[in-house]
Amino acid sequence: MPVLDHALQTDSAPCDAVHQKITVTFDYPVLFTRKLLEPANTTLLHAISRNEPQRRHRFVVVIDQGVAKLRPDMAEEFERYADHHRHQLQLATTPRILPGGESVKNNTAMLEALQQWLHDEHIDRQSCVVIVGGGALLDMAGFAAATVHRGVRVIRVPTTVLSQNDSGVGVKNAVNAFGSKNFLGSFAPPYAVINDYDFIATLPMRDRIAGMAEAVKVAAIRDLAFFNWLQAHATALRLGEEAECQYMIRRCAELHLAHIAQAGDPFEFGSARPLDFGHWAAHKLEAMSGYQLSHGEAVAIGMALDTCYAVLTGLLTMGEGSQLCRLLEQLGFTLWTPLLELKDESGRHLLLNGLDEFQEHLGGELTVTLLQKLGQGIEVHQMDKAMLAAGIQWLRQGLPETCA
Ligand SMILES: NC(=O)c1ccc[n+]([C@@H]2O[C@H](COP(=O)([O-])OP(=O)(O)OC[C@H]3O[C@@H](n4cnc5c(N)ncnc54)[C@H](O)[C@@H]3O)[C@@H](O)[C@H]2O)c1
Ligand SMILES: [Zn+2]
């Protein structure tokens, strides 16, 4: 018997309605390994064939140019790997190399070319697209794959700190369009994620440091013990010590995964994005800089600004605010950019438009995550613009004086 929708039942003239409810379960492994493409390493084989180990699987590979430059043999390594496991794997064609970095998300012609390639290679819903690269390429190629046949299987192989500890293990993809960051995109959980720590060794220091912003973020709002660990190992992390970097990536990825699985809103139907501490300003600063500031660098500045704001409004103690800013500096971040001071004709900080844009992207009530304690975030629904301007001034004076 059809169930009337509750809202409709209360109407004076109810219409006939059938309430539909669908539950779809997603599960995917996040695998940690090294030397992914050595034929004896079966991580990739198992990731691709994890649901049907008995059949042969077709797959294509997309590689970030930044990675391919440093590992020019990678396309052949994939070919050798597929050949070694030829009874279970079939590489459909030569791996395709695409630019890495934000430029790949800014050019919809590249998106279309990739969709065309997937079409020409007859990629179907039982085939896999293996994407090897940083967060930007994963986002763009992931979106292409999500739109082909309404979504084909994606194996993400993140190659940066940020993509291994945050973006690559999550459920989203996107490209920038119409002047807006991440305007076109979808929620599309991957088929599997493989974090090969060896990629981190070739990463330029700037990108390695930038990715740690997400670790500070998730520690600051969720996990005091991890925050304390980051403080204790800041020097080693800044220097790129292997054991510390691996632990940081793994713990950060775990915290993101736990949030996605347990916080109750993996596809962000609500107006809140509880993990996006520092992100309203970060997204605006990235765009204002013409993407010269990377996502992680902008997140660090965004967190520092929101920390100054939280201290100024009495939400957070000066001592705790100071600890957060100092940790970011010890990890190698610069917490100031002149972009923070840019103003429109009416004297208003351009950055503050980022608050409205953040709200518009999520819809509904403005919801920003701030800190009330180290290890504990809190959602607020308004930000005092005059106080934010004061926060910018505070940040300008430089740290540690700012919050000390
Ligand atoms: N989908 C999500 O949930 C989500 C979350 C956070 C961030 N992001 C997005 O991620 C992007 C940032 O990603 P990122 O920080 O990984 O940087 P990136 O993808 O922009 O890569 C930075 C640079 O490093 C190069 N590179 C990648 N791996 C390398 C390696 N192992 N060795 C040498 N060079 C390498 C790239 O070619 C590029 O030039 C942004 O577009 C951001 O919006 C997405
Ligand atoms: Zn982020």
List keywords for this structure.
404 residues, alpha/beta, Rossmann fold, 2 domains, seven-stranded parallel beta sheet, two-stranded antiparallel ribbon, 11 strands, disordered C terminus, binds nicotinamide-adenine-dinucleotide, binds zinc ion
Question: Can you describe this structure?
Answer:
- The protein has 404 residues and is of the alpha/beta class.
- The protein folds into two domains: 30-202, Rossmann fold (3-Layer(aba) Sandwich), CATH 3.40.50; 206-396, Dehydroquinate synthase-like - alpha domain (Dehydroquinate synthase-like, alpha domain, Up-down Bundle), CATH 1.20.1090.
- 44% of the residues lie in helices and 15% in strands.
- It contains 16 helices and eleven strands.
- The protein has helices at 6-9, 43-48, 65-70, 74-84, 108-120, 135-147, 161-165, 205-222, 224-232, 234-239, 242-262, 279-288, 295-312, 318-331, 353-362, 385-396, and strands at 30-33, 57-64, 89-91, 96-98, 128-133, 153-158, 172-177, 180-187, 192-196, 368-373, 376-380.
- The longest helix has 21 residues, at 242-262.
- The structure holds nicotinamide-adenine-dinucleotide and zinc ion (ZN).
